[in-house]
Amino acid sequence: MSVPIVRTEPLGGSALSQSARTGQLPQWYRPLPRGVEEWREYTGDIARTVAPTWFKDLEGAIAPSGAAAARLSRVVKGQGLVVTTGQQPGLFGGPLMTLVKAITARALADELEASLGVPVAPLFWAATDDADFNEAAAVSVALDGGARELRLDPRAPAGMPMARIPIDRDIDHHVALFREACGSAAHVAYLEETLAAYRDGATIGDSYVAVLRRVLEPLEMAVLDVSHGSVARAAAPLMRRAANNGEALAGVSRRRSDEISAAGFTPQVDDVPGLSLVFLNRDGLKRRLPLQDAAAVRELPGDQFLSATVLLRPVLERFLLPTAAYVGGPGEIAYFAQVSAVSDALSVPTPLIVPRWSTTIVEPRVQRTLGRYQVSVEGFADPHGVETRVARERLSPDITSALAGLRSNVESGVSLFGAASDGLLASEVIEGLRRSLDHRVARVERRMLAAVKRRETEVMRELATARGSLYPHGTRQERKLAFIPFLARYGPELIEQMKAAASAHAQSLVSGPPSIVSPPAATAARV
Question: Are 397 and 143 in contact (CB under 8 A)?
Fold first, then answer.
């Protein structure tokens, strides 16, 4: 076993997200077309719903090159479509799901282009305007002995976008561990170019975009930097409309949240009374505008602009781009139940969201561990189950027999005592005695297993290493582990494996059974 296994796995997510993907919520989601003919009907006029100058307007933000530029050029010249996905910045390029989303978008673009006979390009929306430093400043890596989180020290004021937050010398503290996570790095260029991007003096947002372009442009996927000034200029008409009609948007958003709650689900995005769906960006910071202030927005000075909150962002993207579909994860699918109310109210075509492909990459060393201890990948989802089972198997037969004897003696002894008490003690007292003695035996067994774990240090370290690769910090691999170490170790061959698996997923979206069906109800107030 010298190559990784790329497993396709269920996407998971909340009850709202899963119900949406099985077509149970037709009132809140744009339908997923059924088969090629419905896709052709749905996509037929998408290119005409955006400005014909959309690429020229956004070219500075996209700045495509190489294979990505060539594919996007075909779309522009042929009035074609894009399949989009996106993610906020993450340290050293972010977690594996960033790459997974991108590869899914590429696979879906390929499938639509082949099926519809029109040019379709994948496009990554790099949300460098995001101001969540805690999310952007961390990523985990798999090391010998377990997963390790790498995190930059907080230093930016609240509301500062990642595009403006500089990286300083504390990045150096994490470089050694990041190198270690890449191992022998047969494809070292991925590592070196990532470290060159995340350097002292660059911003978190710029570094993120640089890494994505290095990885994705050879895959014919361009990257749109949301913080580029051209995006704010192109977005200005919709942003002003959303600001000036903030009360109406707040109303439809609140009613949609109430509908979701009444149906027994939890809205993904909380309603915040009194605040609009737009941010004002000024003096390098962004703040969410109160409804009263948003209503008064007219022309802004050149150093100020409006940007979108999470529920407005997909609507803005659909306003700016000829987007056939947005590839999203379970959380994004959940909040699109609220997005459709906003798009309907703003008279923007409701964006179509499709589920991304989901995977766990099982590396050769981990494959050997799974085989040696006869455990499945899913076995490591239990926080301590594998280690406890292996430790129990390493107990001596005498200890195992003695523990079984103790439990048997407790059971028989308490039963005899209860019978002998002849009703002098209540049955609850006898049962309490049984539970107390069982608890003491179980406590002794836990201490014995802990002692075995301490003795079997190499075994436990091997299991911890596998756990750190498959379920780092108790979470699915794709949500935590950096993707660059995977590429540094396995290179384009791994990408081809991932593309093949994602292609099967894309084929099911175009030709297979629908994941999201029936059109959304057009009940929101128009503004």
Answer: no
Instruction: Select from 364, 252, 390 the least CA-distant residue to 311.
Output: 252
Give the CA angle between residues 137, 138, 142 to the nearest 5°: 155
Note the pLDDT of residue 299. Answer: 87
Average pLDDT of the residues in 510-518? 58
Count of the separate structural domains present in the chain: 2
Quote the CA–CA distance of 61 and 48 in Å, as a whole number. Answer: 22
Please identify which residue in the block is written with the tokens 């002998």: 420
- What Cα–Cα distance (Å) separates residue 115 from each residue in 81, 120, 523? 13, 11, 33
Asked if the structure places residue 350 within a domain, the reply is yes
> Measured between alpha carbons, how far is 463 from 371 in angstroms, rounded to an integer?
12
Question: What three-state secondary structure class fits 288?
Answer: strand
- What angle, rounded to 10 degrees, do the helices at 246-262 and 330-345 form? 130
Question: Do 436 and 333 lie in a common domain?
Answer: no
- DSSP reduced 3-state for 272: coil
User: Domain check: are 54 and 74 in the same one?
Assistant: yes
CA angle 74, 75, 80 (to 5 degrees): 135
511's CB contacts (< 8 A; 6+ apart) are: 35, 36, 115
Residue 486, CB half-sphere, CA atoms under 13 Å: how many? 33
**Tokens 């195992």, residue?**
400
Beta partners for 123?
84, 222
3-state secondary structure of 410: helix
Q: The pTM is what?
A: 0.91
Query: Of 260, 197, 251, which Cα lies nearest the Cα of 223?
Result: 197
User: Is 451 part of a structural domain of the chain?
Assistant: yes
For residue 67, with 0-12 CB atoms within 10 Å meaning exposed, 13-18 middle and 19 or more buried, which class applies?
middle
Mean pLDDT of 471-495: 97
Q: Do 181 and 63 have their domain in common?
A: yes
Same domain? 222 vs 170: yes
Identify whether the C-beta of residue 326 lies closer than 8 Å to the C-beta of residue 85: yes
Distance CA 114, CA 108 (A): 10
List, as one string, the DSSP characters of 295-354: HT--SPPTT-EEEE-TTTHHHHHHHHS-EEEEEE-HHHHHHHHHHHHHHHHTT-PPPPEE
Quick check: 288 and 42 in contact, CB under 8 A? no
Confidence of residue 448 (pLDDT cuts 50, 70, 90): confident
Residues 201 and 331 placed together within one structural domain of the fold: yes
Whether 277 is in a domain gets the answer: no
Taking 60 as the threshold, does the pLDDT of residue 518 lie above it? no
* Angle 348-352-356 from CA coordinates, rounded to 5°: 145
Q: Tokens for 156?
A: 């930016």
Q: Which residues contact 368 (CB under 8 A, 6 or more apart)?
A: 1
- What is d(CA 510, CA 46) in angstroms, rounded to the nearest whole number? 17
Query: What mean pLDDT do residues 177-197 have?
Result: 94
- What tokens does 472 get? 């780092």
Residue 272 lies in a domain: no
Look up the domain containing 432 and give its range: 364-474
Q: Assess whether 117 and 214 both reside in one domain.
A: yes
Same domain, 383 and 422: yes
